[in-house]
Amino acid sequence: MRPTLLAFCLLVLNGVAIAGDTFRFPGGVVSVGDSIAALVQRAGKPDRTVQLENAYGGGVGERWEYYLPGGKLVMFTIRGSRVVAIDED
Fold first, then answer.
1. Residue 55 phi/psi, 5° resolution?
2. In this structure, what are the phi and psi dihedrals at residue 51, rounded to the nearest 5 degrees?
3. Which domain holds residue 44?
């Protein structure tokens, strides 16, 4: 019985960790690791796109910004055609 309890606790903790790297739009949930196509399908085109550069001016990715009702801002950092971070403001 104890291995079952341990497995359940690990699943719950894993679910909490994953929940921090997701955002729900009316069209579906976007998670870290999703492709650009999945992001556009679920959230639509971004309201603003910012090119991210390293110290030498080389492109390292993009930040897609979505302005939501109520003054909320959600930003997705894109690298290698994948979502690598989700930030809410």
1. -65, -20
2. -75, 130
3. 23-88
pLDDT tens sequence across 3-42: 665 555 555 545 444 445 999 999 999 999 999 999 999 9
Rg, the chain, Cα only: 16
User: The CATH number of the domain where 56 resides is what?
Assistant: 3.30.1450.10
pLDDT tens string 39-78: 999 999 999 999 999 999 999 999 999 999 999 999 999 9
- What order of strands is seen across the sheet that includes strand 48-53? 48-53, 59-68, 72-79, 82-88
The answer to whether residue 18 is domain-embedded is no
Position 38 in a domain: yes
Q: Is 34 helix (H, G, I), strand (E, B) or coil?
A: coil
User: What's the structural domain count of the chain?
Assistant: 1
Q: What is the pTM of this model?
A: 0.76
- Provide the terminal-to-terminal Cα distance of the chain, rounded to the nearest Å: 43
